[in-house]
Write a structure and sequence with these properties.
Subunit structure (chain B): The complex is composed of two ATP-binding proteins (CysA), two transmembrane proteins (CysT and CysW) and a solute-binding protein (CysP).
Organism (chain B): Dechloromonas denitrificans
CATH superfamily of the largest domain in chain A: P-loop containing nucleotide triphosphate hydrolases
Oligomer: heterodimer
Radius of gyration of chain A: 25 Å
CATH class of chain B: Mainly Alpha
Strand content of chain A: 25-35%
Shape of chain A: elongated
CATH topology of chain B: MetI-like fold
Main location (chain B): membrane
Number of domains of chain A: 2
Subcellular location (chain B): Cell inner membrane
Strand order of the largest sheet of chain A: 6-7-8-3-9-10
Pfam family, one (chain B): BPD_transp_1
CATH architecture of chain B: Orthogonal Bundle
Largest sheet of chain A: 6 strands, mixed
Chain lengths: ~350, ~290
């Protein structure tokens, strides 16, 4: 089932949670709503589910008007951040709930319910926990049961609100991959909300970056990471060095067409080269800190009054053998310039760095 | 070696506090309770049982239990509805509703009784209309039920509001998104989650309903064998210098109180166990 979101706005008192949102989610796609807390992503998800009503705008399911459809009639599976399992029911009864509350005519027989529930529990690999209560499960198990419960009614759309937010890193990674596999097997549309950029980039087909109730960018994980449409997206997805043209003396070269003082250049830490000899168009700096972090080595350089963050591979660092206090030269390999109006400038295609 | 912890108070402080606490309990709770039974049984068990067999005493017991039972369904419906509205919705006048629920705790029961006399009495607002339709509320059982209702309705709501607030509405939302209707959600998800809290509130409001004196006294009219509840009956008997009868009736009230106390303790214990089980926060999964 495809979802179309048209001009949706929502306020809570004076707070604008959503400001004229337009978004199409085609059938079968796994979409991530990514943004900092308070950006409106959860509100949007709840409006799609029918748990919150929009002040204006409409929602279409498979092209049909669904704005005022009751949550119970939307055929949407919802997975909550804190699982929301029925605490007084066993795992089996939790998963069976959606089948047991069907109108008598559509309700499957007890034997059929049992078969379906055990099949779903098998799918989430927890059939051995059928008789336990939610309180006896670990966080990861609870979230998988919550997923099985949502899938029991065969929803056309699966909505997940920060599904892995309350879990620790290792479980989160496992569940992520598992969700991706599940999504591909079930042939449904899924939307999940997250504030974790790594999660969004790894799992989703498409990432919708939101901020202050607005959509900043919609694109594939690669697009939003390597071609961010706004300074916000640049900064939200990964580390970035921000250079102001005022500080960078030779920087006017890039900006020679317009003499705007307030342009800003964004450079990812891993897009900077360091050399021990003066570089033709490099800048000089002093090594401030050297932090080996996993496969990378993070170097902090001081250039005039600014700190520049650089990430080198271990091999590169072995070759350079940087020590604190050493004088080096650095040069960005690629960068991106945004104007004062914060909109992408004329040719955002990975520009060469010119001083 | 003397093992005193830094946080431990000196011995005399502990003993003083302990004896003040226990002494107070003995003089103001233990002694009166024992006195009730001693007085009631002063002339032996047969006389005690005889006093309880008095038709007026028996009718008072019946009326007390009857009123408590009549009030119960109203209290449950109101308590659950009010707690639901307050815990799960945002609406204008919410804080006003919360304040109003506490009103019966703040108002003297006698004033509560008088309010109903002013409303339903012969000279009251609805008095003429009631007389026309030959309906009797004041100095009759309906008035006593209404007065008891006024006194007891906060108990269940007050018990449920914090419970339902702490549970949030995630589970209800999950039920609805799975296709449950409003009733199915209530019976299958909400009610099971609040059942112990509800029972606790029922016990408390029941105890109050059976023991209520002031409000009921004002609207009852003290018609013997008709509108006398146990507490009112105790007063009448005592004023007539029928000590055995008064204390026998009082002993029934005291017994009801003890039963309530035991029931309350059991429910409290169950509730604590259940909340502990349901709210266990497990350490993040390691494997």
């Amino acid at each position: 089932m495809s979802i179309e979101i048209r001009n949706i706005s929502k306020r809570f008192g004076n707070f604008v949670a959503l400001d004229n949102i337009n978004l199409d989610i085609p059938t079968g796609e796994l979409v991530a709503l990514l943004g900092p807390s308070g950006c409106g992503k959860t509100t949007l998800l709840r409006i799609i589910a029918g748990m919150e009503s929009a002040d204006q705008g409409e929602i279409l399911f498979s092209g049909a008007e669904a704005t005022h459809l009751h949550a119970r009639d939307r055929n949407v599976g919802f997975v909550f951040q804190h699982y929301a399992l029925f605490r007084h029911m066993t795992v089996f009864e939790n998963v069976a709930f959606g089948l047991r509350v069907k109108p008598r005519k559509e309700r499957p027989s007890d034997a059929e319910i049992k078969r379906r529930v055990m099949e779903l529990l098998g799918l989430v690999q927890l059939d051995w926990l059928a008789d336990r209560y939610p309180s006896q499960l670990s966080g990861g198990q609870r979230q998988r049961i919550a997923l099985a419960r949502a899938l029991a009614v065969e929803p056309k759309v699966l909505l997940l609100d920060e599904p892995f937010g309350a879990l620790d890193t290792k479980v989160r990674k496992e569940l992520r991959r598992w969700l991706r596999r599940l999504h591909d097997e079930m042939h449904i549309s899924s939307v999940f909300v997250t504030h974790d950029q790594e999660e969004a980039l790894e799992v989703a087909d498409r990432v919708v970056v939101m901020n202050h109730g607005k959509i900043e960018q919609i694109g594939s994980p690669d697009e939003v990471y390597s071609a961010p449409a706004s300074p916000f997206v640049y900064q939200f997805l990964g580390n970035v060095n921000v250079f102001h043209s005022r500080v960078q003396g030779g920087y006017a070269e890039v900006e020679r067409h317009e003499v705007s003082e307030k342009t800003t250049a964004f450079v990812r830490p891993h897009d900077i080269d360091i050399a021990l000899q003066p570089l033709e168009d490099g800048l000089q700096a002093t090594v401030q800190h050297v932090h080996p972090i996993g496969p990378l080595v993070r170097i902090e350089l001081q250039h005039n009054s600014e700190i520049v963050e650089v990430e080198l591979s271990r091999e590169r660092h072995e070759a350079l053998q940087l020590v604190v206090g050493q004088a080096v030269w650095f040069r960005p390999r690629q960068m991106r310039v945004f104007g004062a109006d914060q909109l992408p400038r004329s040719t955002p295609e990975k520009q060469a760095f010119l001083f | 070696m003397k093992s005193t912890r830094a946080t431990q108070e000196p011995r005399w402080v502990r003993y003083t506090l302990l004896s003040v606490g226990l002494g107070f309990l003995f003089f103001f709770l233990g002694l009166p309770l024992v006195a009730v039974f001693v007085e009631a049984l002063a002339q032996g068990l047969p006389v005690y049982l005889e006093a309880l067999k008095e038709p007026e005493t028996r009718s008072a017991i019946g009326l007390t239990v009857g009123i408590a039972l009549a009030v119960l369904p109203f209290n449950i419906v109101f308590g659950v509805a009010a707690a639901w509205a307050i815990a799960k919705f945002d609406f204008k006048g919410k804080s006003l509703l919360i304040t109003l629920i506490d009103l019966p705790f703040a108002v003297s029961p006698v004033v509560a009784g008088l309010i109903f006399i002013l409303l339903f009495g012969a000279q009251g607002t609805f008095g003429p209309w009631l007389a026309e339709h030959d309906l009797k509320i004041i100095f009759a059982v309906p008035g006593m039920i209404i007065a008891t209702l006024f006194i007891t309705f906060p108990f269940i709501a007050r018990e449920l509001i914090p419970l339902m607030q702490s549970q949030g509405k995630d589970e209800e939302e999950a039920a609805v998104s799975l296709g449950a209707s409003g009733w199915q959600m209530f019976w299958r998800v909400t009610l099971p989650n609040i059942k112990w809290g509800l029972l606790y509130g029922v016990i408390l409001s029941n105890a109050r309903a059976m023991g209520e004196f002031g409000a009921v006294s004002v609207v009852s009219g003290h018609i013997r064998g008709e509108t006398n509840t146990l507490p009112l009956h105790v007063e009448i008997l005592y004023n007539e210098y029928n000590a055995i009868g008064a204390f026998a009736a009082a002993s029934i009230l005291a017994l009801l109180a003890l039963v309530t106390l035991v029931a309350k303790t059991i429910v409290e214990w169950r509730m604590k166990k259940e909340t502990e089980m349901l709210n266990t926060v497990l350490a993040p999964e390691k494997t």
